[in-house]
Design a protein that fits this description.
Keywords: Membrane, Transmembrane, Transmembrane helix
Protein name: Branched-chain amino acid transporter AzlD
Organism: Caryophanon latum
Helix content: over 70%
Number of domains: 2
Radius of gyration: 20 Å
Order of helices and strands: HHHEEHH
Transmembrane segments: 40-58, 65-82, 88-105
């Protein structure tokens, strides 16, 4: 009984995760979007990544904003590599390695 419940739960979670990600692609595939909408959509990945980065660096504790200096220091070489190479995979590798080295040192 528990195994069937767990299997149904996993399948349900899969469907709930998959549908919101795939439906926009299916809808947009058949529709021609205006150029202004396409231009606006180009900024979404940058906005999402910026939000994730700023959320990690700036933390709200009670009513004060604090800076997570470990993450802020790791951001510097990662950002330099991102600007210099424009390679997402190399940027991620540099960020992970930098963070790992900082955690070992500090």
């Amino acid at each position: 009984m528990t195994t069937m419940t767990m299997l149904l739960l996993i399948v349900g979670c899969m469907v709930v995760t998959w549908l919101p990600r795939m439906l926009p692609f299916l809808v947009v595939r058949t529709v021609t979007l205006p150029p202004i909408v396409l231009r606006w959509l180009q900024y979404i990945p940058v906005c999402i990544l910026s939000a994730l980065v700023f959320e990690t660096i700036f933390q709200v504790e009670e009513r004060f904003v604090t800076i997570n200096w470990l993450h802020a220091v790791a951001l510097v070489p990662t950002f330099v590599v991102a600007i210099w190479t424009k390679s997402l995979s190399l940027t991620v590798v540099v960020g992970v390695v930098t963070m790992a080295c900082l955690r070992i040192i500090i």
